[in-house]
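Q: Structure tokens for this one, please.
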Amino acid sequence: MPELPQLFNGLSDWRVLLDIVVFAALFYTIYRTLRASGTWKIAVALSLAAVASMIANLLELRGVEWLFTNLSQVAVIALLIIFQPEVRRFLEHSIGFGRNSAIRGDENLAALLDDTLFDLSLRRWGALIVLPGKDPLKQWLTEGTLLDAYPSHSLLLSIFDPDSPGHDGAVIIAGGKVRRFGVRLPLSSSNSLPKNYGTRHHAALGLAEKTDAVVLAVSEERGVVSIFQNGTITELEKRGELQDSLLASHGHDDKKIKLPGHPGQSWRTAIEVFASIFLAAMFWMVVISSRTDLREVFISVPIEYSRSPSNLILSEDRLPEARLLLQGPAALLDSLAPSQVRMKVDLSGMAAGRQLVNLTDENVVLPKKINVLEIQPSSTTLELKNLTLNQMKVKAQLIGELQEGYKIQDIEINPPQVDVIVPEGNEPEQQELLTTPIYLEGIKKTTTVFCKVVAPYGFQPQDKRWPDLTVTIRVIQAKK
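A: Here is the predicted structure, written as tokens:
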């Protein structure tokens, strides 16, 4: 873990600052997405848990670190399941470019909606109109009747006439046409609207929280025209404001309703941005910096001897392993598996006899960003021996005894002898090889067993592989 002065000194690097800005933007976007869906409190709780984990890491509280590490493995999967709609919306928004205009610059439609909704407000007829954006709406809409007609002042008035059967539902206008009417929208899950707003406004906010659609509402009780977008509500006071808002694809900030329990919009945004930057800085200092902190560690590695000349063999008296002093990022060293570190000694080009071989970092295979500082020992003495051809008999390796009343008449081994390449000076006194063990218990009659050759170290077959052996044991009953 790096010291605090080192952490703060690292913040002067422009790359680190860019890192923090990127993370802050990511945290802020995720928070806004969760806040729009009404789950911002869970986001704040998760942020506090993340800060607690970072502080525990900073103070090296091993018990708390262990708890967060083990819980996080399950929590990631649980959060993906819980926040599946929010994750989907975030990914859909992340690949969208440019500002989404609710009516794609159609001034006639904007003027029509402006005139119609203010006429409805004068009559105190409730209304709900949805202008889809880029997000698909199918999963959030229920019921409704297909219409597919061009919008007009009289058509919209007839739909929202209190005596009309579909007046309580929403109208979907897309592609310049009224696609459906009498549609049910999802209610807001945030419960942040004032009490004087009814079900129609909670439905409008619910769809605006979950998608980028623009939802227009007319209050039946108060006769107020409102526009909902991106989880916010804006009340419009006079004709012409709705047309301007639709063409600009957003409402007027100075008339946004301040929802209860929240500070002013500017202060809230400033606090959110500051919290995102603070969390990103903590994340970089504790997580990223600690993971890139250099550490040194000793490990033992087996030595692999390869590419021996065909006429030579390495003697058994050789160094089996070496100790390596490695340096690299703490995260890489902590996750380093034994299979990722290999030490090889190439025997090609060596001659027969004893010789000194230096062990260097060129003999070591390591992941990137990990270096070898020291090898113990730094050299080893190897002995290569010439090979000679010998013909050796094969002897059955019998284990145990036959049952009482039986005896072995004879044993036949095929092949009875094998051509063997033997290291010079290691010729055995008895020119015999053994078979794999043959257990005599339970044998009561002549039996044929398939075996392999068991040879001492350094003995090699002439034909690159040992031949398969068949051992026939002839058994007879002993005379009483």
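A few notes: The mean pLDDT is 78. The first strand starts at residue 127 and ends at 131.
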